[in-house]
Amino acid sequence: MDPKNISDRRKLKRKKLAYYMLVVDVQTQQTIGHLVDITPIGLAIDSQKPISLEKDFRLLLELTSDISNKSQITFSARTKWCRRDEIEPSLYDIGFSITAITPGDAAIIQRLSDKYAARDSYSFPLR
């Protein structure tokens, strides 16, 4: 898939994080990567392994104390794209859309985005 088409289809501009956080597959308890991008409706990670497209996950995101008094949140997400990283070819860049999240955890993701990402303002869709 052409990366240019992916960015053209995006409804919200991605926000680059200045801080990496672990993303874990709840079912296997394995780290699948580190969070590098986020919007209120999706996220991107760096991973050592590729992931199949349109695969559903229950993800756990580890948090820092400056974001929340919770150490982690969980939510459902689906893989939308996967490609080798252009700078570090031993890694894969993987994009997810958030498919289900509690309102409280959605607010935490919004705080995370506000604190570590660009200062664009997004309205977080509560599901």
Care to describe what's here?
The protein is an alpha+beta fold and 127 residues long. It has a single domain (3-109), classed as Thrombin, subunit H (Beta Barrel), CATH 2.40.10.220. It has helices at 3-9, 103-116; strands at residues 15-25, 30-39, 42-47, 56-62, 72-84, 92-100. A hairpin with a 7-residue loop joins β5 and β6 (92-100). The longest helix is centred in the C-terminal third of the chain and has 14 residues, at 103-116. It is globular, with a radius of gyration of 14 Å. The termini are far apart.
Quick gist of this model?
The chain has 127 residues and is of the alpha+beta class.
SSE blueprint:
Elements lengths: L2 H7 L5 E11 L4 E10 L2 E6 L8 E7 L9 E13 L7 E9 L2 H14 L11
Antiparallel strand pairs: 1-2, 1-4, 2-3, 3-6, 4-5, 5-6
Structural class estimated from helices and strands: alpha+beta
Number of strands: 6
Distance between the termini: 29 Å
Report the sheet with the most strands, covering strand number, pairing sense and barrel closure.
6 strands, antiparallel, barrel
Radius of gyration: 14 Å
Tally of helical segments: 2
The CATH class assignment is Mainly Beta
CATH architecture: Beta Barrel
Order of helices and strands: HEEEEEEH
CATH homologous superfamily label: predicted glycosyltransferase like domains
Helix content: 10-25%
Strand content: 35-45%
Poorly predicted parts: 1-15, 118-127
How many distinct domains? 1
- Remind me, CATH topology? Thrombin, subunit H
Cα shape: globular
Biggest sheet: strands side by side, in what order?
1-2-3-6-5-4
The quaternary structure here is single chain
| Overall pLDDT metric | 80
